[in-house]
Amino acid sequence: MALDRSGVIEQVRRMSDAPSVYEGLKKKAETFLGAVDTPQEKSAFRTLIDEIKSDVLTIDQLISFTDSPDGVAVFGAQKAGELAAAAKQAKAQGEDTCICPACQAGKEILANRAAIAS
Hints:
This protein has helices spanning 5-17, 23-35, 41-55, 59-66, 69-75, 77-92, 101-111, 114-117. The protein is an all-alpha fold. It folds into two domains: 1-56 and 99-113, no CATH class; 58-96, no CATH class. The chain is elongated, with a radius of gyration of 15 Å.
């Protein structure tokens, strides 16, 4: 779905508020949100885009993590199994990105970055 500038900003808010967001990404999102409507907006957005590119997981990375001993240690065996099953189902339906709210918002931001970056 094509987003305009305000839609991208809303996705940044959603990503920042997601319980699954990586702290470094959250800080970059908050810096961008603080720069909205200032001369620093575009540079803060470019920095945020670079961070999103390095932090958003692929569906295969999510599956690999939730199927690993590290994933079980983080989520517990039951939750890791549920997440792995949900990720595998999403992949079978064509999803290519981690299904957590932070990664899904990041995916939308990347797909619509021209609404702010241009």
